[in-house]
């Protein structure tokens, strides 16, 4: 059931910036294109699909847009799918950048599909830019509204591919470094071989280790990490 009430104002994650995003060489072009779109050049319409990191990148685009004096709105559909889509998208055509995260979650929701389609059409006559993310390619979206499917297929599409094992360990070390934490190769390998190996699990564990190291006033050594993971 759609709620007519707006949720509390959603704030961007302060850590979800481009400077905090580990970018391997094969994602360099993708990240560059997103940065260009955020500041008002490059592609006007972008569809980003693939594995973890999409939400971070969409929020990073909003941060960059705002730093450039532009108006951006981030809509995490995972949190807002039960709210009135017309209210969520009201005035979006007057923004500089609209970011819709996890669009696969509204597939089959008639009101959301129609609202996004109408929003797209309104944006055609303005300078507003649209960045959409999904877990799957457009061709795999189970969207009922054919006109919306057609519009989405016209967007420039970029795929966020899975990181390799060495890249995931490097991403863990990079993320730690942005927090002022040094993780040696040996510690990174120790964590990687004993934790779920997707990026989200690694970063969640890093959050725990960061808090514990501050409380205990200890560096991230293998004995400390082992102790922390056993708690």
CATH topology category name of the largest domain? Rossmann fold
Rg, Å, rounded? 19 Å
CATH architecture tag of the largest domain: 3-Layer(aba) Sandwich
Q: Quickly count the helices.
A: 10
Q: Give the biggest beta sheet.
A: 5 strands, parallel
Total domain modules: 2
Give helix and strand order, one letter per element, not per position.
HEHEHHEHEHEHHHH
Strand order in the sheet with the most strands: 2-3-4-1-5
Number of strand elements: 5
CATH H-level superfamily of the largest domain:
P-loop containing nucleotide triphosphate hydrolases
- Helix percent reads 40-55%
Point out poorly predicted stretches: 1-8
Q: What is the first-to-last residue Cα distance?
A: 41 Å
Kindly report the oligomeric state of this protein: single chain
* SS strand fraction: 5-15%
Q: Report the mean per-residue pLDDT as an integer.
A: 90
Write down the overall geometry.
Answer: elongated
Based on secondary structure, the structural category is: alpha/beta
CATH class of the largest domain: Alpha Beta
What does this structure look like?
This is DnaA regulatory inactivator Hda. It comes from Zhongshania aliphaticivorans. It holds the Pfam family Bac_DnaA. The protein is α/β, with parallel strands linked by helices. It has two domains: 143 residues, Rossmann fold; 66 residues, Helicase, Ruva Protein, domain 3 (Orthogonal Bundle). The chain is built from ten helices and five strands, in the order αβαβααβαβαβαααα. The chain has a five-stranded parallel sheet with strand order 2-3-4-1-5. α5 links the parallel β3 and β4. α7 crosses α8, α7 packs parallel to α9 and α9 crosses α10.
């Amino acid at each position: 059931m759609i709620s007519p009430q707006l949720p509390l104002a959603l704030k961007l994650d302060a850590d979800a910036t481009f400077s905090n995003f580990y970018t391997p060489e094969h994602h360099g072009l993708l990240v560059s294109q997103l940065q260009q779109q955020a500041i008002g050049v490059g592609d006007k319409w972008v569809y980003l699909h693939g594995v973890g990191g999409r939400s971070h990148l969409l929020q990073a685009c909003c941060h960059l847009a705002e730093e450039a004096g532009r108006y951006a709105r981030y809509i995490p559909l995972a949190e807002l799918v039960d709210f009135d889509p017309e209210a969520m998208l009201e005035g979006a055509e007057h923004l500089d950048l609209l970011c819709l995260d996890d669009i696969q979650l509204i597939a089959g929701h008639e009101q959301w599909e129609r609202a996004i389609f109408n929003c797209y059409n309104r944006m055609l006559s303005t300078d507003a830019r649209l960045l959409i993310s999904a877990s799957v390619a457009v061709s795999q979206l189970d969207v009922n509204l054919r006109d919306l499917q057609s519009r989405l297929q016209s967007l420039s599409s970029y795929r966020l591919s899975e990181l390799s094992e060495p890249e995931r360990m490097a991403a863990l070390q990079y993320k730690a470094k942005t927090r002022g934490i040094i993780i040696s190769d040996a510690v990174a390998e120790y964590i990687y071989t004993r934790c779920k190996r997707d990026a989200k699990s690694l970063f969640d564990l890093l959050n725990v280790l960061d808090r514990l190291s501050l409380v205990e006033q200890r560096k991230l050594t293998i004995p400390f990490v082992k102790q922390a993971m056993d708690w």
